[in-house]
Amino acid sequence: MKTRVTKLLNIQYPIVQGGLAHLAYAELASAVSNAGGLGQITAMTLGEGEKLRKEIRKTKELTQNPYGVNFAIGQHATSYEELLEVVIEEEVPVISVTGANPKPIFERLQGEKVKKLVLVANVRQAQKAESLGADAVMAVGNEGGGHLGRDEVGTVVLIPRVVQSVSIPVLASGGIGTGRGLLAALALGADGIEMGTRFIATKECVHAHQTYKKALLASSEQDTVIIKKTWGAPGRVLKSVYTNHIIQREREGATYEDLKESVSGEANKKYIYEGEEDKGFGWAGQVVGLIDSVPSVQELIVNMIEEARHGAEDVYKMFEN
Amino acid sequence: MKTRVTKLLNIQYPIVQGGLAHLAYAELASAVSNAGGLGQITAMTLGEGEKLRKEIRKTKELTQNPYGVNFAIGQHATSYEELLEVVIEEEVPVISVTGANPKPIFERLQGEKVKKLVLVANVRQAQKAESLGADAVMAVGNEGGGHLGRDEVGTVVLIPRVVQSVSIPVLASGGIGTGRGLLAALALGADGIEMGTRFIATKECVHAHQTYKKALLASSEQDTVIIKKTWGAPGRVLKSVYTNHIIQREREGATYEDLKESVSGEANKKYIYEGEEDKGFGWAGQVVGLIDSVPSVQELIVNMIEEARHGAEDVYKMFEN
């Protein structure tokens, strides 16, 4: 199929895999790219330049198609300069920036051929990203997993607002994990989707513990909650005794410093790598309510495109009468 | 056009106007029905049976098309028995029930020809409504104006979940006010939409004060907030000094009894009828970010259908290549 996103990124289907801290490595990224979408490696959770280089080279061995590297440069992130040099040296075709102002990264990339995507949560951020030279924005609605905007604007409103506010292509993110969801994103004027949570529940997301995958299947759309809201950095996670406790502490006035360890990457890994439900947490969007299988990435994408294609026909016919 | 909802309600376009407390009377309801949608009169805010009868008869004079009567039977609502008898006597073609269990209303309507719609905010309520005999459900996502579900599930996830959980038609509600929004609802598997806030900013919503209409145009999708959340009855309103004060009081532990007058129908009317911003509030959904005109209802619906039709063609073509 063809949209501005498939043309921009030179991919078959307008589906970009999200950055997925601690989970987005060569196996998953290459599977998504081989299936016609754009897979991504997470740079920041790899930490060191040589580790990133190894992961990029592994990805290049596993796929001939375009892929991306994600930079999650949120407020408590470490430095990325070394990682960025590796991206340039390895001639990575696409990067995405999430969590903060992409300006310093874009400045370093000037003159390089790499395509630049930016995750935004409101119109102002989208316009800023466009003015800085982003090739496309990924707009995330309140349904999404992981870090979100502070205004709680739902995907169904956010996407058309961003689409009417920028000229570059828009990828819809937040609450999308099916062919019907992809179709709705296109209906709202997006040129494609970014999808995170849904890709965790695939065979090729080899780093996610079975406990985490099973929880994604078992959870309903009512089973996610938002942590870190009181500090202005809301993030959606699976509801659990552990995450309920964080929220309770926040309500009682706990600061970031108080709960730093409980919300850290280490606590995240305790759950998503080791399945220790009482020692950590897992990011997840409301789309968990629509996840009930762990297919291969290839199966997932083929099924989504078929479902979207049939849905497009059905909807088109409604207007013919 | 044709969907299960147009067939069920015998209307031209699958667009149902929401109940709109204090604003949904004969002028608006007949305009929506004349434009091919389903207009509704609000029963509960009329209060007395004979007042409702007068409004129904006025509506019948103004349109030959089907119309509905809404019963908002939330927790602090008054009794509706007398109003329901009038609906039966006047042979109203459609009723909708919002805010609570429709069982007692449905029991009284047994054997009557009236079609029954129910507003729901989660799968459990939708299944309950179906089992009680609802002809269709209207599922409202977290983006919506007025009273919402407690789980903050966005429209883009809630609609496909409800569609897969019931056999009766589903109308999508929450965040929809454009042709693209209608198209997205159909893409998600809905058979139509319920739309509230968008209809307030029309010429025929004659009871809404200019101050309220102007505020709907001026507001962005970031300019709504939720009141009454701490009491388990969240409702989305326009952000203002007045509504911020309510939220602040709630945070400090104020009870419903403490703030009863501030959140009452009288306070609502102070703002929406008289434009007194410091004495009351107005319900509104996040869709205010997409509202920038006050057209006639006929113009609004014609434009929405055209936009949706063109969008359906555009999206369909994306899959052809």
TrEMBL record, chains A, B:
<dbReference type="GO" id="GO:0051213">
    <property type="term" value="F:dioxygenase activity"/>
</dbReference>
<keyword id="KW-0288">FMN</keyword>
<protein>
    <recommendedName>
        <fullName>Probable nitronate monooxygenase</fullName>
    </recommendedName>
</protein>
<dbReference type="Pfam" id="PF03060">
    <property type="entry name" value="NMO"/>
</dbReference>
<keyword id="KW-0560">Oxidoreductase</keyword>
<dbReference type="GO" id="GO:0018580">
    <property type="term" value="F:nitronate monooxygenase activity"/>
</dbReference>
<dbReference type="InterPro" id="IPR004136">
    <property type="entry name" value="NMO"/>
</dbReference>
<keyword id="KW-0285">Flavoprotein</keyword>
<keyword id="KW-0223">Dioxygenase</keyword>
<comment type="function">
    <text>Nitronate monooxygenase that uses molecular oxygen to catalyze the oxidative denitrification of alkyl nitronates. Acts on propionate 3-nitronate (P3N), the presumed physiological substrate. Probably functions in the detoxification of P3N, a metabolic poison produced by plants and fungi as a defense mechanism.</text>
</comment>
<dbReference type="InterPro" id="IPR013785">
    <property type="entry name" value="Aldolase_TIM"/>
</dbReference>
